[in-house]
């Protein structure tokens, strides 16, 4: 069938709340709904979660949701801009942005059991664009020092995966590698061994150091 309007879905993957939007999102994907319907369902879910008094009151909704209905767009004063966005994004892949931590068990589970096998492999780049952000709950001090939730090793792996994404910008190249590495880390394989195995298995003709 034809695709509807493109849109974006952001997921924040953290230790205690890794799959905040996972269940409704995966249910929608599993039934192969059009992207407009996915956006509508996720929007409805978000509205329920933040307990808005009115679905058309822009003061109670973040700007990212203002284009989800014509009434809301008019009330917020962005109807013309939303119409332009709708036309520009029509029939485009859905953008899924995942903010994750490389050593977070919940994030590893989501990437290895849901995002890669059930979303990317099932729908492909024609329907889904995945943006991975290996930063998660990292904190930066006033001096510019970064501290990661799961320690220094996680910071090192996050940095490596960021460089990997920059070196292999095609999601069909870097997502499988990160999926492979996270699958190994999930079962407590040493990072260097995991990296070596994944590069050999996926035949990545590059040399990286963490």
From TrEMBL:
Pfam families: GILT. It is found in: Secreted. GO terms for molecular function: oxidoreductase activity, acting on a sulfur group of donors, disulfide as acceptor. Its main location: secreted. Keywords: Glycoprotein, Secreted, Signal. The keyword Signal applies. One of its GO terms (cellular component) is extracellular region. Residues 1-34 form the signal peptide. Belongs to the GILT family. PANTHER family: GAMMA-INTERFERON INDUCIBLE LYSOSOMAL THIOL REDUCTASE GILT (PTHR13234), GAMMA-INTERFERON-INDUCIBLE LYSOSOMAL THIOL REDUCTASE (PTHR13234:SF8). This is Gamma interferon inducible lysosomal thiol reductase.
């Amino acid at each position: 069938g034809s695709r509807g309007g493109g849109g974006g879905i952001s997921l924040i993957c953290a230790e205690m709340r890794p799959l905040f939007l996972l269940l409704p999102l995966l249910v929608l994907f599993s039934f192969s709904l059009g992207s407009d319907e996915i956006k509508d369902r996720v929007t409805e879910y978000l509205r329920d979660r933040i307990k808005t008094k009115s679905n058309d009151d822009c003061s109670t909704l973040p700007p990212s949701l203002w284009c989800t209905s014509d009434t809301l767009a008019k009330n917020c004063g962005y109807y013309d801009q939303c119409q332009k966005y709708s036309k520009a994004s029509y029939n485009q892949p859905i953008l899924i942005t995942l903010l994750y931590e490389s050593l977070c068990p919940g994030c590893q589970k989501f990437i290895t059991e849901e995002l890669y096998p059930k979303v990317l492999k099932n729908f492909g780049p024609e329907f889904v664009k995945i943006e991975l952000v290996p930063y998660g709950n990292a904190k930066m001090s006033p001096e510019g020092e970064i501290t990661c939730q799961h320690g220094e090793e996680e910071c090192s792996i996050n940095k490596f995966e960021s460089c990997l994404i920059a070196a292999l910008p095609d999601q069909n190249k870097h997502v499988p590698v990160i999926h492979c590495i996270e699958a190994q880390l999930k079962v407590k394989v040493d990072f260097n061994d995991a990296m070596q195995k994944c590069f050999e298995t996926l035949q990545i003709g590059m040399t990286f150091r963490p």
